Amino acid sequence: MKSFADKVREVVRKIPKGKVLTYAEVARSAGNSKAYRAVGNILNKNYDKSIPCHRVICSNGTLGEYNRGSGSKKKLLISEGYIQKKRGIINMNS
Q1: Candidate list 15, 42, 53, 83, residue with the active-site label
Q2: For 27-39, what is the mean pLDDT?
Q3: Structure-derived torsion over alpha carbons of residues 61, 67, 72, 75, reported in degrees to the nearest 10
Q4: Structural domains in the chain?
Q5: Which among 3, 19, 49, 56 is placed 20 to 30 Å from 91, CA to CA?
Q6: Which pLDDT score is estimated for 61?
Q7: Is 58 tagged catalytic?
């Protein structure tokens, strides 16, 4: 039987480039819709590059934290096309 943490990592591993899920969506997909804070804690400890935890954002549309730095998260999401930078303005596209 898989642990909740294993399920979270499995869900996040499947998020394609240019797309994001919220912490709440990951929690729901992993089987516990109320465990969105636990998702954040699990991803904070992730250093496996095959698990793209930078693709998980807050429900209010903000990027949230990232264990490699929030600037790195933003750069990764820009490079993957989720955030488009035009004239110094960041446009969030889902």
Answers
A1: 53
A2: 97
A3: -40
A4: 4-92 (1.10.10.10)
A5: 49
A6: 87
A7: no
